[in-house]
Every structure is written in structure tokens, then in C-alpha cells.
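Hey, sorry to bother you again with one of my protein questions. I've been puzzling over a protein and I'd love to understand its fold better. Take your time with it, there's no hurry, and the full record follows here:
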Amino acid sequence: MHDHRALGRELGLFDTDPLIGAGLPYWLPDGATVRHVLEEYIRGVERRAGYRHVYSPVLAKRELYEISGHWSHYSDDMFPPMELGGEQFVLRPSLCPHHALIFRSRAHSYRELPLRIAELGAMYRSELSGVLGGLTRVRAIQLNDAHIFCTVDQVAEEARAALELIRRAYDALGIRPARYRLSLPGPGGKYVADPDLWERSAALLTEVLDGAGVAYEAVEGEAAFYGPKIDVQIADGAGRESTLSTVQVDFHQPGQFGLGYIGADGAKHRPVMIHRSVIGSVERAVAHLVERHGGAFPGWLAPTQLVVLPVSDAELPQVRGLVERCLARGLRAELSGPEHGTLGARVRAARLVPYQAVIGAREAAGDSVALRLRDGRRVDALPAVELLDRIGALVGAYSTDLWDEGGAGDEKGDGRERAGGRR
């Protein structure tokens, strides 16, 4: 695995500037493309799973976080309040209090539950300079967050479904979890004092993990202040672990905000709040993907998916036409002409691009393409329309495979690239 800080800068994905500040990276065009595609993928996954997306402000009154419990249990990690018109406002450290208010803004019936609210939203953590690093520890975070409001009877199934979303996303991204962790409270006063709450929540999550058939470890001291959680751990090349995805059961905040729904008996009942993040922070997810794949992202996620390489200037009209056809189909394609060097030099420069389409005089005359795959394989000349159809199908399926070998023609070379990363 690679160091994402060095490789991210080398590939032009992100950078920092002291005038912006430590822990506040900015995204360059290729990095912004990866981030945008990742965010759209997650939104699509969530929409198909029945989530409704919302937007909420990054600021709120200090009182909001006093009610939620963040101020008493988490204020050391929050930025100082700002005085505005005699009131104190705070940059939010999490999205859950905002989503609780969104739920509370309308009356709800048991027939509406489970109600799944999702947001790719910004939040801010007052991290100390000594722990900041690249994209893995930052002060401004774009979080893939969601909250499910449901009955007690629905908790286990909703948590299981959230774990399945995480598994499917990891398959598409080529991520392998290092381990699953059941994070429980430990000694100290940073947790909500309600033993019954903790016991019920931990029992539900244990049931979910046992039912999913995944090996896990129970670890004290890693719970959120309001409840236990399932953490999906990833590891870098040095074996250092971090949490990417979470599923949490929360009986605390619904009570703090007076949340309710009308049950089948006509009475008001308290919902359970499940906190769920499929890929966690976009920053940490991209950092891990850079290190996991060495910049050779899955084809659907690559900033440039296809580079078109004319052998000479004579093929430029056909090459420009192919690039335009790619863009019209939503494929990210670029032209690399002879002004950038010999064909061999241009192929080497595009070594991380999944597909390299070479067009010489014969291909230009027949509207075909000689295809090189990133892993070293070559595919016999294909009609351009077939090439675009096949690449588009793999991209649309969020596949980690570079090529569907069924009917792919003669392939040359022994390079291989499998799901889970380049080897």
C-alpha cells in the first residue's frame, strides 16, 4: 500500500496551503472528480434503499448541542462558539441533532416507519495539530451520514440492512474490512448514564452481528457517548486501524428531543434512532482508496476512464470524434496526441488510466479501436461503438473488473487486475 499524502499530491488529487490552514485540504480537479463520483454513487445506493436526502446548515445554536448531549460530552472536540446578536452559534460536530429536528418538524404515523433520512453533509472537529494528517484526520469533514427513525421491532432488520449496504459498497470500491468491532462504553464519565439504554442497545447490535455471520470483537471505551455501535475497521499499509463505517443504536437523543410517532393504538410512542454511515467521511474513504489501489482506481471511479491515443496527427479528426462520443455517454475521456511524445511515452504516462484506446490509420478508416487495458492486456480491434457499450456496461455496474472476457476477442499479455485492488 502507498502513502496517500505523497501519492495524492503526485497525482494531483488534493493539496494544502498554510493560508487555508492545517487539516483543511483543498481538492484539485482530478480529486474533485473522484469525490463527486463517490458521493453520487452513495446517493444512488441510498435512494435505491429507500432513503430520503436532506440538507441542513453547518451552524446551529449552542443550545441544540446542549440538548443533544454533544456539549457536555464532546465540547473539547468542537470549535469555540461564535457570538452573533447576543446568541452563541457553533459549527456542528455531527449531523444527528439536525436530523432529529427534521423528524420532529412533522407529525408521523407508525405507517411511515422506518423513516430513513440521509445527507452528505459538512461537519467540523477541533482536532489538535499534532494528530492531523493528509485526508485521514482533518478539521472539515464531509460525512456520508444517515439516521433511521423506527420502532424497536424494526431496529435489528434496519441495522442488518445497513451492514449489507456497507458490504456492497466495499465490493464496488475494492475495500476489504480489517475487522468488525462492537464498540461498548468504558470507564469514565463521557457516556450517557443510563444502564438500561446501554444494555438494550448492545443486545440489539450483538443480535445483528451474530445474524450477519461476521467475526467481531467487543471493545470497551469505543462507543459513542449516547450508545454502542458497530464499527467497520480498515487498515493502512502499516497495519494502523481506523473506523470507516458505523451502525449505531440510539435510544438517548429521541428522548432528549421529545421525538414521537402515533402508533396503531392511537397513542404517542418514542422512535429509536439508528445512526448509519456507509463510507464514513469522504476524506478518509478517498485516502484509503488511494492507498489501496495506488491511484489505479476501479474503472467507474477513475478521474480519467479512457485516454485516446492517435498514432499520428492524421488520426486526430477521428480521435476527437471518439472523445466527444465518450463525453456524450458520460464517460470521462481525454485525448493524448503526438505533441505529448511517442506512443510508448504516452502509454506510460497514462499507466493509471483503466482504458487506453490506440487509433492508427487502419482503425481510423474502420471506426475501430485497438484497446490496451491498464493491467497490460490488449484486446483485438473492436468497433468503437462496441467498445463504448462494453466500457459503459462495466462502469454502470460499478464493477471492479476491467474487462468482461466473455466475447472480448483475443487478449494478449498476462497482466491481471482483480476485484479488491491492483496486484
Remarks:
- The two ends are 10 Å apart (CA to CA).
- The chain has a mean pLDDT of 91.
- Residues 162 and 276 are 7 Å apart (CA to CA).
- The first strand starts at residue 14 and ends at 15.
